Amino acid sequence: MPNDFRRKTNRLKDFGYISPHTYSITICTANRKQIFDNNEIVSEMVKHLKEPAYKLNYQILAYCFMPDHIHLLVGANEAHANLIKFIKHFKQKTGYGFKRRHGINLWQRSFYDHILRKEESVIETVRYIFNNPVRKGLVEEFRQYPFLGSMVFDINDI
To answer: What is the pTM assigned to this prediction?
Structure first.
């Protein structure tokens, strides 16, 4: 590889990610290793989502832990909420603990984001995220999948 090789950034140029937007996020495991098929591991991840969400003023509208990646829908509660800081905090905390316990890296570098536009429905996006396990053939109905939820909505109302 040439010395000047630079990995392309996934972030939007000239957008600070400090604003009251709603974001759809995908974070992949390192080498797409299937890790999130264990209740104990996923429960630990969910616990670590709550801390930076509260601390950095984000709502977890939806989460879905697929075997080798996570889908999040997060909404900022204030104008100065910093998405990059939120994701960095979550990945560092979970990645460090995971590596100590299991001896391998948890996360792939960076993450993918989509900023919801005004015409995009939050509830439809939640449904889309929740239906990932259905589309992958893991369950017939999303409510059967144990590794999804919301810290805002009752999934029985979705």
So the answer is: 0.86
CATH 1.25.40.10 fits 22-157, yes or no: no
Cα angle for residues 30, 36, 37 (degrees, 5° grid): 135
What's the rounded Cα separation, in Å, for the pair 146 and 158?
16
Residue type, 11: R
Strand order in the sheet with 69-76: 112-115, 22-28, 69-76, 58-66, 148-149
- H or E stretch at 72: strand 69-76
Could you report the per-residue pLDDT of 69-92, keeping only the tens digit for each?
999 999 988 888 888 899 999 999
Q: Where are the domains of the chain?
A: 22-157
